[in-house]
Every structure is written in C-alpha cells, then in structure tokens.
Amino acid sequence: MSNVEPDPQESTCRSEPSPASRLLAGREVVIGTRGLPVIRMLPDRRRSLIGAWCFLDHFGPHQSGPHQSGPNPRDGGPGMRIAPHPHTGLQTVTWLLDGAVRHRDSLGSDQVIRPGQLNLMTAGHAIAHAEESTPDAPRVLHGVQLWVALPEQHRHRSGQFEHHATLPELAGHGFTATVMIGELDGAASPATSYTPLLGAQLTVTSQARIPLRPEFEYGIITLTGAAQVDGVELRPGTLLYLGTGRTELSLDTTAPARLLLLGGLPFEEEIVMWWNFVGRGHDEIVQQREDWMTGDRFGVVAGYGAERLPAPPMPNARLRPRGGGR
Ligand code: MN
Fold first, then answer.
1. I want to staple 38 with a disulfide (CB 3.0 to 4.6 A). Which of 49, 59, 169, 238 is the partner?
2. How far is the CA of 3 from the centre of ligand 1 (A)?
3. pLDDT tens column, 46-60
4. How far away, in angstroms, is 305 Cα from ligand 1 center?
5. Which among 227, 241, 198, 218 has a CA at the least distance from the CA of 25?
6. Ligand 1 centroid vs 69 CA: distance in angstroms?
7. Backbone φ and ψ of 200, nearest 5°
8. Are the beta carbons of 19 and 246 closer than 8 angstroms?
9. Ligand 1 centroid from CA 325, angstroms
10. How far is residue 265 from each of residues 5, 48, 66, 163, 168, measured CA to CA in Å?
11. Higher pLDDT, 38 or 322
C-alpha cells in the first residue's frame, strides 16, 4: 500500500492518552493505477496514533469490473495494483477478508496473501515493495492495510518480511477473535512487534465483552455488518477511538459482524509522516525522498521491470512538529 495522494499532508504525530471515546469518520482516497477506492481512517486530523498504529486504510469490499484489454494488459483486471514504492521507519500490516494480493519486495520476498493470513513487512532503514491482485484473484477484494511506527531504537534496522499463514484464535462468549499481532486474553501472535501492540479481528455474534489492558489505548472499526460498541452504533467507514483506562469493551449485535480492534501503549515519540516515510524531522524526510528518486538505498523489486511510483514534490513549508492532542 502506498500513500499516493497527489499532495500528501505532513502529519506530526504525538499521542495524548485520554479515556474519552470519539467517533472519527474516515475519508475516501483513491490508490493505485487501477483506482482502488479506500477509506483512510488514520491518520485523522484529530487522531494520528493508536499506540504505534499510525495508518489505517480499509479497502472494499470492491467488486472488480470485467477484465479489460488495452495496450498494457496489467492495467485491466481485478483489484489492486501498486507499483514499487519505498518505506522507512514503519511496519506494514496487510490483512484480507476477500481476494488475494501478491506482495514482492526489495528483499526478494514474493508472497501471495489470502484471507485470514498476515503479511508483515518491517521497513526499518529502507525497503521497497509492490502489491497487486493476482490474475486469478477472486473478483471481490476486501481488506485493510495498516502501518506501525517503529520506535527510535529499531527504526534504522534492516528490512524484514514475515508471512503468517495461521494465527491464534480465541473464543469467548458471543465472539471469536483472530490475533494478528500482539496478545489478547492469552492468545499471542507470532508476528514481530517492537512496541506493545494489539491487532485482532473480532467476529461478534451477540453480547460480548472483550478484555482490555488499561495502560493501552484502543480504537476499533467495523469491517462487515454493524455492531454496538460501548453503546455506540459502529458501521464500516468510521473509527471509534476508545482512549486508555479500560479493562473491557462491551459489544453487541443482532447479526454477525466483523470488527478490527487496534491497541497499544501510547507511543511517546513524536514522528513525522510524509508520503510513505515515517521519520523524525524535515531534513531526514527530504533525504529519504531524494534517496528514492536518485539513489539505490531502497533496492529493486525483482520482476516488476522499471516501473516505480515517483515521490510527490515536497511541500513548500518545512515539515515541523505540530501541537499535541492527537
Ligand atoms: Mn506500501
């Protein structure tokens, strides 16, 4: 996944723990050369971080059109097509509910991901990757991509890619959970994280109570269906930020619904996000952009030819920390 807004706004992200919950409407953004519409939930003007989670796109369910024939056959066909692009200072987390997406990166990884599996790429100092629907992918594409900010002591590490085909499941009264990353009520994911973090898909069938850690802050979205979360009706397209200080979360539904629960220790470092980079200041981001456009820092995604996403121009103003509160 790439942030391909033509004029990406800088985001300086600083956490501010708060017990209050807050509904935040996502905004539609179109990504990739096939024009895949996504709902961007993070960063939001009012909330940039949930723990170290710093980016959340919910795409689909997207029904692809008929396969097109054109000068470039790769422009037709279903779903997602995002050419090689760089990342720094973050992990990407890809999770599907429907469809199939092929990931290739500059480490040489080549992995198709399917529903219920986890692709986790740690960018560290530098990595490049591409993501596209496979030619034989199901016609419906539905999933999320998230980014996790890496803490200072790990953000310059070498790149790494993990695929987890099976993940721990948890069953409780009125719900089941698949733990993508972190630990929920004793079920721990093998995925590598560098800060205390939780990402879990919940399937809720009736009244349920999910155990939470009071020192974590949490946010939740609905992926399919609708649910009452802490008494609030939550449908796809809106993020409910839950703050810290909770020991459990009450959920209810009249029909099965799937939700994504995110949590983590409030991330204390200020970060600057611009395009596909997470850094700590303006000059560092300028250098990363320059390295993508001119240098070999990010390596090559084998098998993709010469195509790559160009970085947008830097904004005229310096990227600067903003006030807190989000
Ligand atoms: Mn990406």
1. 59
2. 7
3. 899 999 999 999 999
4. 17
5. 241
6. 27
7. -145, 140
8. yes
9. 27
10. 29, 14, 45, 24, 21
11. 38
